[in-house]
Amino acid sequence: MIEILDGLKEAFRLVLGFDEELLEISLRSLRVTLSALLIASVIAIPLGTYLAVQRFRYRRIVISMINALMGLPPVVVGLVVYIMLSRSGPFGVLNLLFTPTAMIIAQVIIITPVIASIAHQSMRELWAEYHDLLISLNTTKRQRILTLIYDGRRNLLTAALAGFGRAIGEVGAIMIVGGNIDHVTRVLTTAIALETGKGDFALALGLGFVLIGLAIFVNIAIHTLSRTEREGLW
Amino acid sequence: MIRLLWAVIALVWAQIAAADTMRLAVTTSFENSGLADVLVPAIKEDLDLDVQLLVVGTGQALRLGQSGDVDAILVHSKTAEIDFVTQGHGSHRREIMYNDFVVIGPVADAASISGASGAEDAFARIAVAQVPFVSRGDNSGTHKAELAIWQRAGIDTNATLEWYQSVGAGMGAALNTAAGLNAYVLSDRASWLNFGNKDGLALLYSGDPALFNQYAFIAVNPSKNAHVRNDLAILLETWLTSTRAADLINAYTINDETLFVFNATPQ
């Protein structure tokens, strides 16, 4: 129990002391995760909406697959991305292994199914509401998808934030493809794993509290900027 | 507010220009000892070379070297290293320094290994007393050294032994597990001295020549992986075997205890 208090103290010391290394790894955590979130959202939100609007033969199987992929084990994703990007692998020439880009790739794979699945779920409900109106207006498929995305933006924000939550706290995959190199690929989660390994629980917990604080800050910032919880249903 | 957000985004994405860099896979025991924090800045100062450390077990380090994902490795498992070089993955093996393994266990020492006559005897006493023992189980240099001692003591660790816990983790994690289980564990001296969570554990046995732990540097063979920075690896090898490195390594102490002894021979 004492150690948790020590961890809190350590967190305050790190934040109030403007620890340079902490700032560096926190910014890197944000950069990697927000990049991954942006890319994953661009793929997953139209995909989720398309799956809500479009009927086709293997729709149910595709949706089940995406739901199942939400549970992808990060270590396996990390290992597969490692093998792909390794010098002896097919994309070795790109020289991406042990760079932040490799970490972004791994995180995109992990969070795309999460965002797509949640997006699909909420878009399906919205589509049930909008179905008759959009059909009667003789809209094209593209217009339908864009309308749903625009009007369902609050729900999609929740989907994106779920993806953010999964990515910012992830350690298994980015440890393998990033390598936890000091000043290059060390982020908050890998630093926590490292300090735990050294038996320095206070510092590890301190970093953990900083990570939680950062996640809360990002969520509040995004909610404030998008003015949710202020007006109407949408 | 929106403008502020863009400013934050710009800051987050800002990149830093990189100098000459090479990648070196090292063992967890080397990194946990804290010596890396002394050597890496000195290398940067002397050679203007950024050494990026990949901290992994010896098994994974050898694997990274084999696929050409690192430029050189610094590990401690002689047989595996010699195999690595004979298979042509590394050009040659250069011994740099050594430290030693120590047997850590609960302060009460139920197996009374502190009076053992040698490493094998200490391990045999643990087996007889059937007290919990934590094994790294990750194919690392320390794990291989541990298995060799069990073998010489005539104990088959492949058999299901209730007291033998293979955790498959790094040195620090294994020490944490041993602290939690009140178990015995084989550690390198440096990791043990630098370990922060010694709760109820103590150094119980050390000093047998069988516990000698040699670190060696192997540059990845450029004829197998043309892209590796062999020039930088050789530069680093020359530095690691220089008197400057010798002074830094021999002078590194924790609680007034010397951790590593430099023993590279000049070529």
Automatic annotation (TrEMBL), chain A:
Pfam families associated with the record: BPD_transp_1
Membrane-topology annotation of the record: Multi-pass membrane protein
GO cellular component labels: plasma membrane
Keywords for the protein's UniProt record, in alphabetical order: Membrane, Transmembrane, Transmembrane helix, Transport
Record's keyword annotation contains Transport: yes
Subcellular location: Cell membrane
Matches recorded under Gene3D superfamilies: MetI-like
GO annotation (BP), single: transmembrane transport
Family: Belongs to the binding-protein-dependent transport system permease family.
The name this protein goes by in its record: Sulfate transport system permease protein CysW
TrEMBL record, chain B:
Domain annotation PBP: ranges: 23-242
SUPFAM superfamilies the UniProt entry points to: Periplasmic binding protein-like II
Name under which the protein is recorded: PBP superfamily domain protein
Organism: Planktotalea frisia
Native organism taxonomy: Bacteria, Pseudomonadati, Pseudomonadota, Alphaproteobacteria, Rhodobacterales
